[in-house]
Amino acid sequence: MYVAVKGGEKAIRCAHQLQAKKRRGDISLDELSVAQIEQQLTGSVDRVMTEGGIYDSELAALAIKQAGGDLVEAIFLLRAYRTTLSRLAVSEPINTSEMRIERRISATYKDLPGGQVLGPTYDYTHRLLDFALLAEGEAVQAPSADEAMETCPQVMGILEHLDFMQQELDNEQAPEDITMNPVNYPCDRSARLQNLVRGDEGFLLALGYSTQRGYGRNHPFVGEIRTGHCALSIVPEELGFEIDIGEVELTECQMVNGFVGSKTEKAKLTRGYGLTFGSTERKAMSMALVDRSLQAHEYDEAVDGPAQDEEFVLSHSDNVEAAGFVSHLKLPHYVDFQSELELLRKMHKEHEQQTQGKSS
Amino acid sequence: MKLKQEQVAQAQKVSGYNYGYLDEQTKRMIRRALLKAVAIPGYQVPFGGREMPMPYGWGTGGVQVTAAIIGLTDTLKVIDQGADDTTNAVSIREFFKSVADASTTEKTLDASIIQTRHRIPEVTLKKGQILVYQVPIPEPLRFIEPRETETRKMHALREYGIMHVKLYEDVARFGHIAISYGYPVFVNGRYIMDPSPIPKFDNPKMDNMAALQLFGAGREKRIYAIPPFTNVKSLDFDDYPFEVQEWDQACAICGAEDTFLDEVVMDDNGNHMFVCSDTDYCGERQQKQELVVQENEQ
What we know:
By secondary structure, chain A is of the alpha+beta class. Chain A has helices spanning 8-24, 34-40, 42-52, 57-66, 71-82, 155-161, 189-198, 201-212, 281-293, 310-316, 319-327, 334-359; strands at residues 100-105, 221-234, 243-260, 268-277.
């Protein structure tokens, strides 16, 4: 006699316990602390903060610990927390020109005001496994700058001043907020940029790469990448003037792209923009490439690569949405599948009747 | 303020979150979308869907709708594939128990809110009940035209020829309209609507239903509704009328002949049996039969 399967509740409880055990690993080893993750796995923390949409390295580290290092899962945890927080204030626009620079490079000028500042980077690291790290207790020595960094002017400002660069002007409108309102296509650039900041790094990397290989080419040069700290300020209603509330670490990438112009209009270079939390240069560059390719429509360019297709890019960039919908295939679909089988059986029956009718 | 937070925290067994998980402003936003949806039956209302603590695609739309309408006097039933004990139904029920202190039931007729995935219960729902559907893809035209910008125009202009062409192509190729679940319906003579992936067996129950039907699509950020006693027609052709699934067998447990049946595979050779997918309906019938048997014995 068949007995219907029961016990979902107990199974779920046990699954949680098993997962917790798996996350902890060998208990004879010390437990990883949130502070260690926050300090020593900044590559992960910065990505989780950027795509999680909240600047809080401690919570990001907690999410990474809780997710056992699964970054997409950690991003999801952080998002689901973020969405319940109330909005206390909206900050004033950040001025990245006044960034306290940690790293700043340009690929368009050999030297420029403020100079090239390599800062911390893997760029020139030979990717050889450092077996010394297997043994613990290394003490790192870092050089310190001979002189204090001054604020660097933006490369884009120089190009604008020379009248070579398309100006980006403030449209004086409050930016869209896709976390409060659903995206409506076609959407404006503020909604696009917000979506790209939160978008999956791998997805944007691949799309940006596709534009380099000809699927919507837009001739990019790295005008400037800068990483460092920016002051964040708000204007509380009861005070009426700006007060600094802290600093955020940001990476900004400004791509210089192919020019537009016509017989009547002076040719101007165009740009793509990328901004991320922490030092997440790969993501900032990918974002800048895709931001530019999504401007195809504004510049009357043919839309023939996937990276130029706004609805395609923006509605598939979010890894929390994508991972959720892909993983939902694991949920039971008995009813739908049974419906398909019923139709299939019916069609088989008809097929048999037809073939028998023909042969007799 | 602090005291109030503590009280709420005690009531809902989870600290740090508002009653029903969502903050009150978000609930209001969802209720406004729901009111609009009820006013325009079958029309997909965009809403500012939030991240929920379960993955997108696992019922976040339905959960948001339920969270926006549930109160302390409600009794909630959650089903997935018709069953109360499928893992995701259990998980969602536990969620509302912990964040909304909800009273729950498995009895269809005792529930004031029924959140469902892929089924409509077998018993006829009553006036005053609310059926909340979890919707993966709210756009019935999506697999014919993937672009939102295009499908929005088609709905606005009631330009649905493309859907009839798709149904016709099915007939030409397979001899049938080859849609067995998520079978499109025409609501109130105006909008073509996706009924969510319920089997087409359940479609006729939507027509003139006494209960309010609410549909939530979290990832796609759309809400739509069918108010009570609204005309809902499954699309078809005069010479290929809409028909529902039929089985040769009855439920192997309760003997019902008029329910949607799940197929249970018994061995490696594909031997199988059929049982009701609606576990509450099947259980009620078994209980009645046992009572009859007991009475006869006495």
